[in-house]
Amino acid sequence: MFNHHRGLWGYTGTAPDGEPATIQATGMGGPSAAIVLSELIALGARRAIRVGTCGALEEGLALGDLVVATEAICADGTSRALGAGERVRADPLLCDGLVARAPSARAGAVVSVDLFYEPGPRPPRPGAIAIEMEAASLFAVGRAAGVQVACVLAVSDTFTGDGRRRRIDDHTLLESAERMGRAALAALSG
């Protein structure tokens, strides 16, 4: 462990390919994630993959399934403040690497929002397979800095038609996190 500034733990070491690698928590939401990625870029980061969780919006996505975000629909304030339009794309090479290393993952657009618990019924999110809070901001920071950024997510929440939430159990989350971590390290190495 090399850092726990702002309560966000960071670890650095050597990846399986012998190259240096850093794993850094970003906190929750676009503002915190944008700060952390900007600071990592200032320290020399040239590629980053967010490993996190999301809520399923597409039928057929189950708890523990993996999602590779090819782009983010910007329904948050941070990505918009960073100059993103309606959508911001992930780095296609890193996305291809994630898909190759996690072939069962569903690739597609996610929607980035500011609220974890939205009041009332969730608004429709046409074109999005999942909902989360950081991808649009991270893709916008990466685009502005000329840094490759991608995102792999585990489905941690599913929703019924009436908006009730079903959450992932700890065992399934751990298994998904390990699969995402292996895929991310391999994609960064490839």
Question: What is this entry, summarized?
Answer:
The protein is an alpha/beta fold.
Please describe the topology of this protein.
Layout: E1 10-14, E2 20-24, H1 30-42, E3 47-56, E4 66-75, H2 77-81, E5 87-89, H3 92-101, E6 106-113, E7 130-132, H4 135-145, E8 148-159, E9 165-167, H5 170-189
Parallel strand pairs: 3-8, 4-6, 6-7
Antiparallel strand pairs: 1-2, 3-7, 4-5, 4-8, 8-9
Helix pairs in contact: 1-4, 3-5
> Roughly how much helix do the residues carry, as a percent range?
25-40%
Indicate how many domains the architecture comprises: 1
Discrete helix count? 5
The total beta strand count reads 9
What is the helix/strand order? Answer: EEHEEHEHEEHEEH
Which CATH architecture would you pick? 3-Layer(aba) Sandwich
CATH superfamily: Nucleoside phosphorylase domain
User: What gap, in angstroms, lies between the N and C termini?
Assistant: 25 Å
CATH class: Alpha Beta
Stated plainly, the CATH topology is called Rossmann fold
Q: Give the biggest sheet.
A: 5 strands, mixed, barrel
**Nearest-integer average pLDDT:** 92
Outline type = globular
Strand content: 25-35%
What is the alpha-carbon Rg in Å? 16 Å
By helix and strand content, what is the structural category? Answer: alpha/beta
